[in-house]
Design the sequence.
């Protein structure tokens, strides 16, 4: 039997604290909220869970705080079979949290406190070299310090390890640094910030990719929501679904793509598979909770790819 793809995610782990309320309180006012839900989140953690659900051997390189959320985050990874030996507890800092407030119109207000995610250092990455050096793909983003991501990209490149860089949340970057990655995968907003160009349709997305490639990025995949993805100048169509909640679709795409690329599929097939994996994640509420397992994915793929 072929061995499982090995994926390492160097990234963030947050706890999402979602409060549902009829309206937002005014300054100084206390009101009752309607409902509350606590969920595991953070782009890095979400991508790790997507990769794990797709059947990969996954290790997470991250920092959590030495609080109950840190413990719970590690337990959640363990329960899913994700290697937590490089998830470090950081004394005196909180775990990353995202208090989210949703009103009755579905409008949300989100605060992100980076907490321990902001303490992940290049040294933490080098200390995880045994897992990194045997990885098929290393996945990186921007919810950890930029310097750590850049140094990790450099380190992986020096050692011939393939990398996938998700430049999220959107920020302006030196394209030479971003170009250290084998694949750079922004969504439309991130692509706009990265390129300084509007990305409102496929044509503009193509121009944007061209500009990013001229700037030094070798392989660019722009995710286009319901329109699928653009790889270089090739459009890979999405799968028709009736979405219930698209939160986390981008993370589902990135985490699953890492596995599909490592499984030896052609780039176009791997992207098409990631489109389906991400589309399926929109069919139920939540982020990690909405990521399907390999069995469900395979049966949908058989049914829909023919
Ligand atoms: P993000 O979640 O980062 O904003 P996108 O909205 O681009 O990222 O979504 C990521 C991927 O999820 C898309 O490339 C596509 O494959 C899939 N996807 C998202 N929304 C839909 C949808 N409405 N229908 C089908 N696929 C979708």
Sequence:
């Amino acid at each position: 039997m072929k061995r499982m793809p090995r994926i390492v995610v160097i990234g963030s782990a947050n706890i999402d604290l979602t409060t549902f309320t009829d309206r937002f309180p005014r300054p100084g006012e206390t009101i009752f909220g309607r409902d509350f839900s606590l969920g595991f989140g953070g782009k890095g953690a979400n991508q790790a869970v997507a990769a794990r659900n797709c059947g990969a051997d996954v290790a997470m390189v991250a920092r959590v705080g030495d609080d109950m959320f840190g413990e719970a985050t590690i337990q959640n990874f363990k329960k899913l079979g994700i290697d937590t030996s490089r998830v470090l507890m950081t004394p005196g800092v909180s775990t990353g949290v995202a208090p989210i407030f949703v009103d009755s119109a579905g409008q949300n207000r989100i605060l992100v406190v980076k907490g321990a995610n902001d303490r992940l250092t290049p040294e933490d990455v080098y200390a995880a070299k045994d897992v990194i050096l045997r990885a098929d793909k290393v996945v990186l983003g921007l919810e950890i310090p930029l310097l750590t991501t850049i140094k990790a990209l450099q380190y992986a490149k020096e050692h011939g390890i393939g990398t996938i860089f998700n430049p999220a949340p959107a920020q302006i970057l030196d394209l030479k640094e971003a170009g250290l990655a084998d694949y750079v995968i922004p969504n439309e907003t991130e692509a706009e910030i990265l390129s300084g160009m509007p990305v409102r349709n496929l044509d503009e997305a193509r121009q944007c990719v061209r500009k990013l490639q001229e700037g030094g990025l070798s392989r660019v995949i722009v995710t286009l929501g319901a329109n699928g993805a653009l790889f270089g100048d090739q459009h890979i169509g999405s799968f028709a679904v009736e979405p219930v909640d698209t939160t986390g679709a981008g993370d589902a795409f990135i985490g699953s793509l890492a596995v599909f690329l490592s499984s030896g599929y052609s780039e176009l097939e791997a992207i098409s598979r990631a489109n389906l994996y991400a589309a399926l994640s929109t069919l139920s509420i939540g982020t990690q909770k909405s990521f399907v397992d390999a069995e469900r994915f395979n049966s949908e793929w058989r049914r829909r790819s023919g």
User: Anything to note?
Assistant: Residues 187, 223-226, 228-229, 238-239, 241, 243, 246, 249-250, 253, 275, 278-279, 282 surround adenosine-5'-diphosphate (CB under 6 Å). The longest helix spans residues 267-281. The radius of gyration is 19 Å.
